Amino acid sequence: MIKLVPEVYKKYYKKGKTDIDIFTKVFISPDADHIMEPTESQKRFIDKAVSGDYKELWMAGGNSCGKTYAAKFLATQWAVYKIKPGKTYTDLNDFNNAEYNVLCTGPEQKQAMELWEKVEDSFRLSPFLRHKVSKVTTGTRRNTHPMIGLKNGVRIEAVGLHDKGKHVEGQAYDLILINEPADARHLMETFEKVLEPRTWRRGGVIIGVGTPKGKNDYYRLWSRGQLMINGHKNPHFDETVYSCYVDSRDNPHADQASIQRYLGTQNEGLIKERVEGKFTDSEQLAFPDSQIEAIIDDKLSTKIGRSSMRQYIHGVDFGRKEDYTVCCTFDITNEPFVLVNYYRKGGGIGTWEEIFSDLFKIYQEYGGDFICDATAMGGDMQMEWLDDLGIPNIPFQYGGTKGKKIMLINNLQRFISEGKIRMPAHYELVQELHQYPRDLGDKGLQTDSVMALALACLGINEYRINSYPESYRR
């Protein structure tokens, strides 16, 4: 069989173990017309990882800087060669008999899967690496998590860190890759109690790659790799931890439209985070991380059905092609007011007919008034459509003058800072809250969830009474 292997693979297979550039170009590339090549930042980071000098490595980078692909290249290479930095195998039997497990993880199962699927693509699309795979499962009765099994005995799994990492069971891992650690709730606790212990048995390595979102737990973990912080010696410096920044503009393959969108905001804090990949203080953002964390209740279900004798109100921000229609439904019977339903649809998927049909179903279940954004083009049409369906609505226009938008966001800031609302950790909603700029310079940003939440809180503030609010359109 070895004679059937093209000469190029035989020539470079041994070199590919120590040279990520060769491994990516020769073995991960799908074909000669689609050559994959690591950036200089990715090569530097992977070289640091393979050196054996570090037990943890953290890459903080801007959007489209190549963080996920760095993790993809590294995971694929290490799985093929069972790389244990600083260690060698005595012979072929030692290599074949060595257990080796890789974990792709993230704040939720979604982010874990995003990284795992990138790694799976490496094997599935490669003419050479596809033959290294023994099986791929998306979940079984005994093991509900996706898994790639290689013929050399390696297992590559995808398990999210939700519920404080309780789904990451007692497996020992040689390599743990964390996708977007800034978005993980209880990251420090999960890191210390769940992830670190999973590497002790075999001396595994933990690698985190993601965009900064304020100076939260991700920053505290990342900063341990910096000898100096703001010109002062870092008392928490750990020489076994490596950390770096990566600027989106250093990646020739980056989404240039995304970079220009953030540069166009002229918001220094957003540009530092989303383009330069640097951590910023929460003063640049409208909603401090600590306040967002305080209103999230892990015990709440993502959807809570209607109960009799309860009052409900809805905030709706419309969008379909590039934006999303978001509806936030609150139980306003008692304070703190609870987000019982979060609806999000659009982004080029779905028609207006489908969206309004879904909103009608929400109204049928919960009743109550819909406080709606009537600012965008087609606002009158959307209000008429709600009227035709018999959905009571109160339009709110915050365009034209900045004063109305300031009032809307200030009210939401007050509701969050005073703990007037509670909600489960809906990923898109929490993401938008974490990135919303203090100066309201949100042009080009995804803000539909924030605006729907703000409209709902405005409705609670303005229209909540002891009985259902009456719409002037009734």
Question: If you had to describe this structure to a student in words, what would you say it looks like?
Answer:
The protein has helices spanning 7-12, 20-28, 40-50, 67-81, 92-97, 109-125, 187-195, 197-200, 217-223, 256-264, 268-274, 289-295, 352-366, 379-388, 402-417, 427-435, 448-463; strands spanning 56-61, 100-105, 133-137, 147-150, 154-158, 175-179, 205-210, 228-229, 232-233, 241-246, 312-317, 324-331, 337-346, 369-373, 393-396, 421-422. 36% of the residues lie in helices and 17% in strands. It has 474 residues and is of the alpha/beta class. Strands 3-4-5-2-6-7-1-10 form an 8-stranded mixed sheet, with helices on both faces. Strand 11 (312-317) and strand 12 form a beta hairpin. Helix 2 packs across helix 4 (67-81) and helix 4 packs across helix 6 (109-125). It has 2 domains: 2-274, Rossmann fold (3-Layer(aba) Sandwich); 289-463, 2-Layer Sandwich (Nucleotidyltransferase, domain 5), CATH 3.30.420.
